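Hey, I'm writing a tutorial for new members on how sequence and structure tokens pair up, and I'd like a real worked example in the thread rather than a made-up one. If someone can provide the structure for the chain below, I'll link this post from the tutorial.
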Amino acid sequence: MANYLSSLEKQYFIKLFNKSGYVLDFSNSSFGAFCINSIGVNIQEEYGLSKGASLEAFILNGETCKVVRLLKDLIDYYPLAKISDSVRKDDECLYNKCEQILKTISITSFSQINGFSDKVNSEYIDQMQELMLSMQKSNPTEAIGKAKELIEACCKTILDELKIEYTPKDEISVLIDKVINILHLSPNDIKDTQKASNTLKQILGNLRAIATGVASLRNPYGSGHGKSASYKGLQERHAKLAIGSALTLVNFLWDSYELQKETLKRSNDEI
């Protein structure tokens, strides 16, 4: 297997994805979020060009393993993209050629990447929100998959930052339990004397249910199980529910983590 793209092979991908500065059905914000989710970099901000021109520059000049990773993710997304039937038909042979090229690239190239998709911060949450909202109407099943991935990435980032161990095989229910415990967000952490304690306990008790619910919805309907472009999954309203639930949970967890971090920092400064 090869571990690089030839100059000719790069031109195939450029021809497929750079359509007079446009890339598939992405807006500027959703393309930026897609790139960050894939390789940790918003390439349009990096190059300061149109989406298509930035992608072309990245393909020609970027780090090989990251270029391959982004192209692989774009090829995977291609069947779900909202593009005209005529363009899809015209590019059918080109798409198949590009897909075959990626199959010849050594998979070890992908393992070299420390993508931002495994790390979360406030900017990442905002970018993912843009991406999911842009997908909820045209590709609700893909949006559901991204909602689950956002929850998972948030949990893993918090656990990594707090040096709490987990395994790659841990289900999202295990990850959320670890985060809830380390951030003291379980109902048992609420004192009975606290105002609205019963209401707070009820809300906190549902945190795990939100995470597992989104994950369960994603399994049969989301993007992680090889659905074709013709597959009819859930509707836009269901995607909105999954996205809203995921964003509510992730923002609460991240705000709680940031608060705990700031509180700890102040305590250390006072010592």
